[in-house]
Specification:
18 strands, single chain, eight-stranded antiparallel beta barrel, 9 helices, four-stranded antiparallel beta sheet, alpha+beta, 437 residues, 2 domains
């Protein structure tokens, strides 16, 4: 009797186990462990922007010069004009403008590639907050739907100033679309609905992993955003071509209105500081003026150019150096006999001879040669040099005293092709009613 009872219980329990297993299988999500409500807890983005030149694209050009204007140019020109000098503010603005660098199509946009990394604390600080709800499908072979809600700060372009700025407060996210996960290949597909603004881009080749051995469960998703790249857009949606509407809706324009500054306040693309629209211009060639483009340095450089171009009495190689050390005639060789291009040293000798002859000529901006040269006590030629006026900033009220010139960068707009690789980490929100094994 006892053996029959045990046997009967065994059969009964076996049936319960089989029944429970069937129930679990029936109730498990069709799209597996990825189904759930997930909170963004980590994000790494690698951004690439390549400059383009393309017919019909706004702001397109063969080259993109980044120009800086002297902050006081118009005021100085107006003062000269009022003093009776035959000059206009517009002329001074144009004559003192400086090209800091020139970007070419095919090259990286300035500051790219760049990487942004956020842990949970950094996400909160940046105003990035996203929850994605991966809803199940009707079968294991059909797509599920998803929703994304939260906030994500967005970069916007001021087209009039060619200035890129962060949109705050961050816009609300309300994405939706279809998704699918392949557990054999690890591929993840996202297809946002069309004709509405979406934060997450479409992609068919994302990679994912889910870990339900930890509590709460974690989900990692890696994908590439090619949505704003005309040549790679077909990879986003195979067979769909980049058309005029895509050009208007998807084309990214890089706006530059500043560069990082070094410790001395000079523009320096290699500096690790935030970009600034105002700064000094610094170059090694400006060593006589402390490395800065000062008012005296500007006058010397302008006078050098004017004297070389003087057809009646052109400046010659007075110091006998024979070259400025550059391949000016394009034959691949510097310092050859053909390249007797006058340099600042030659101009100094010319100025010195002029002063000693009692002429003391003036530059185009009205600065006497004697104000631009430092002859010490006049007895030791080895100590003769250009006067360094970098000890203070230039002031209109004392403009003949010279000084460092403050420059402002003009906004520069450049069309680019953009790709972004995202590596995102998510943690499951525990208070949800999605079913899992």
């Amino acid at each position: 009797m006892k053996s029959k009872l045990i046997k009967g219980l065994s059969i009964f329990l076996g049936g319960m186990i089989m029944f429970t297993a069937c129930e679990d299988e029936d109730n498990s999500p069709n799209l597996g462990d990825a189904v759930g409500l997930w909170d963004l807890t980590g994000l790494k983005g690698t951004y690439n922007r390549k400059i383009i030149n393309k017919t019909g694209v706004k702001n397109t050009a063969d080259k993109y010069p980044l120009v800086a204007n002297w902050k006081d140019a118009a005021a100085f020109g107006a003062a000269l004009q009022q003093a009776g000098v035959a000059i206009t503010p517009e002329y001074v603005v144009a004559a003192t403008a400086q090209t800091l660098t020139t970007f070419l199509p095919g090259g990286d946009a300035p500051g790219f590639p760049r990487e942004a990394v956020f842990d949970a604390a950094a996400l909160k600080l940046a105003g990035i907050q996203m929850k994605v709800d991966l809803l199940d499908s009707k079968s294991a072979t059909t797509k599920g739907t998803y929703t994304v809600k939260g906030t994500y700060p967005s970069l916007r372009l001021d087209p009039d100033k060619c200035k890129t700025y962060l949109m705050l407060p961050p816009p609300q996210i309300n994405d939706t679309g279809d998704w699918f996960a392949n557990y054999e290949t690890g591929a993840f597909e996202l297809a946002p609905v069309v004709d509405i603004d979406q934060v997450l881009p479409p992609f068919a080749d994302g990679k994912f992993t889910v870990n339900r051995e930890v509590d709460p469960a974690t989900f990692n998703l890696q994908f590439t955003d090619r949505d704003s790249h005309d040549e790679l857009f077909a990879q986003v949606k195979p067979g769909k071509t980049w058309d005029t509407k895509m050009e208007e809706d998807k084309r990214v324009i890089t706006g530059i209105d500043g560069l990082p500054l070094n410790a001395a306040g000079g523009y320096d693309p290699a500096a690790k500081t935030d970009a600034s629209s105002e700064g000094y211009i610094m170059q090694a060639a400006l060593a006589p003026w402390g490395g800065f483009l000062t008012f005296y340095a500007l006058n010397v450089l302008g006078e050098l150019k004017a004297r070389i171009a003087d057809t009646k009495n052109p400046l010659t190689d007075l110091d006998g150096s024979g070259s400025n050390g550059k391949d000016d005639d394009g034959d691949g060789v510097a310092d050859n006999a053909e390249e007797k291009i006058p340099t600042g040293a030659d101009l100094f000798m010319y100025m010195l001879a002029n002063i000693q002859a009692g002429n003391d000529a003036k530059t185009g901006f009205g600065i006497p040669y004697s104000a631009l040269t430092d002859l010490g006590d006049g007895t030791d030629p080895t100590k003769f040099k250009y006067k360094n006026d970098s000890g203070a900033d230039w002031k209109l009220a004392a403009w003949t005293a010279g000084g460092k010139m403050m420059y402002q960068i003009q906004g520069l707009c450049m069309p680019v092709n953009e790709t972004i690789f995202f590596n995102s980490d998510w943690t499951e929100v525990e208070d949800h009613d999605h079913d899992h094994d």
